[in-house]
Amino acid sequence: MQLFNSNVGLMFWAIIAIPGTLLLLVALTHLYQSKFKEATKLLWALVILVPLIGPLLYFAIGNPQRIQKKS
Q1: pLDDT at 57
Q2: Contact at 8 Å (CB) between 52 and 23?
Q3: CA–CA distance, 17 with 23 (Å, rounded to integer)
Q4: 65 touches 36 (CB < 8 A)
Q5: How many CB atoms sit inside 10 A of residue 58's CB?
Q6: Three state DSSP letters for the chain
Q7: Has residue 70 been placed in a domain?
Q8: Domain residues for 21?
Q9: How far is it, in rounded angstroms, from Cα 49 to Cα 44?
Q10: Which residues contact 63 (CB under 8 A, 6 or more apart)?
């Protein structure tokens, strides 16, 4: 099976790959700028690297676990 045999196949992969890559980069940037315990931060970095599902899990579950700044 050739994945890039037609324009439809190329368009399908572009529709999945481009937003998935952007979501991955945004999640990693957000994680880098956020305060977590070191072990937790490393764990979330590994979760984020799971394609598509990882960044979504981070924003749904990991984001509320951040250490909040005290004002």
Answers
A1: 92
A2: yes
A3: 10
A4: yes
A5: 24
A6: CCCCCCHHHHHHHHHHHHHHHHHHHHHHHHHHHCCCCHHHHHHHHHHHCCCCHHHHHHHHHHHHHCCCCCC
A7: no
A8: 7-65
A9: 9
A10: 30, 34
Evaluate whether residue 57 is within a structural domain: yes
Distance (Å, rounded) from C-alpha 7 to C-alpha 9? 5
What's the pTM? 0.72
The total number of structural domains that make up the chain: 1
Question: Minimal CA–CA distance to 30: which of 5, 6, 66?
Answer: 66
The Cα 51–Cα 66 span in angstroms is 22
State how far the Cα of 4 lies from the Cα of 23, in Å rounded to an integer: 23
In the prediction, which pLDDT does 11 show? 80
User: What six digits make up the tokens of 34?
Assistant: 């956020």
Kindly report, residue by residue over 21-57, the tens digit of the pLDDT: 999 999 999 999 888 877 888 999 999 999 889 999 9
